[in-house]
Amino acid sequence: MKRNLGRSNIGISAIGMGCWAIGGEWKFDTQAAGWGAVNDLESTAAIRAAVEMGITFFDTAANYGAGHSEVILGKALGTDRSKVVIATKFGYGVDEARKVVSGIYCSPNDIRSSCTDSLKRLQTDYIDLFQLHVGDYPITAAPEVRETLEQLVQEGLIRAYGWSTDDTARAEVFANGNNCAAIQHQQNIFEDNAPMLELVERHHLSSINRGPLGMGILTGKFSNGASFEQSDVRHVSPEWMAYFKNGQPNAVWLTKLEGIREILCAGGRTLAQGSLAWLLARSDQTIPIPGFRTVKQVQENAAVLEQGALSTLQMEEITVLLQGK
């Protein structure tokens, strides 16, 4: 199952892999922002498994592990780099040695420096999709960022660009750029951003869906509670996080999930697969990017490429059930 990356001629798998979790431990200012300790060998094996199962889209960021995610992804892909599409992000200051990310750096020179650093970590000479990571960056300053990205496209350092933001007004600024290909935004079965989907469809952009599995809660594995390391962002449960509160799964979400479990799991799907299949059915532009830390997780999620999207009837049934909650 394949889709185009927005209005570019770049073909990608309909599901990508999000590389936040494999970055390991890091901090945003003083707060834990990673997913806890990781095993780099397992991360590498998982990336290789994804490629073997037909995944051709990987989304990372300079932030993730303060550069570590990019390093692992670049090493793991190796000579297969030309067979896949890499998306990464910029906009913050990255201290690789201290594993700390802080400050906003979006001047033309900052963007170029970030691009150069990401190219080195990824062991490549071009980035397929370069995304602004600062979701609330001032809209009045966004055109300058867009023009710098257009220049990087002309220079061959990037192929396309996008913005990771949940704000449609900001997304519209980038959408008007010639080489904008995608908007990355929060999107899952319980957080449906209909206005953003309307925007990307109107501009023929890709809707890259972060949080497609609610950081694990939509897999059902936290139905009996959760226990996370202190270095795991889910233990911290920052204010923006709807999935977990005080380190525990959102009870409202768990109740809703049980109400639609039967439909999501129809045909032998797991809850995770059903949740991803819902996103694929939601719009022709959606590209879910579930996170991963193990080969098993990759294999489960990548199987959706063969299973396909939910049916129209299943989508309608889920809508009716959720409206009753």
What does this structure look like?
- With 325 residues, the protein is of the alpha/beta class.
- The chain has a single domain (2-217, 283-308), classed as NADP-dependent oxidoreductase domain (TIM Barrel).
- Helix content is 38%, strand content 19%.
- The protein is built from twelve helices and 16 strands.
- It has an eight-stranded parallel beta sheet with strand order 3-6-7-10-11-12-13-16. Strands 5-4-9-8 form a four-stranded mixed beta sheet, with no helix packed on it.
- Helix 1 (40-52) packs parallel to helix 10.
- It is globular.
- The two termini are 32 Å apart.
- The mean pLDDT is 96.
Write the layout of secondary structure elements.
Elements: E1 2-4, E2 11-13, E3 17-18, E4 27-28, E5 31-32, H1 40-52, E6 57-59, H2 68-77, E7 85-90, E8 92-95, E9 100-104, H3 108-122, E10 127-132, H4 142-154, E11 158-164, H5 168-175, E12 180-186, H6 194-203, E13 206-210, H7 233-236, E14 244-245, E15 248-249, H8 251-264, H9 271-282, E16 286-288, H10 295-302, H11 304-307, H12 312-323
Parallel strand pairs: 3-6, 4-9, 6-7, 7-10, 10-11, 11-12, 12-13, 13-16
Antiparallel strand pairs: 1-2, 4-5, 8-9, 14-15
Helix pairs in contact: 1-2, 1-10, 2-3, 5-6, 8-12
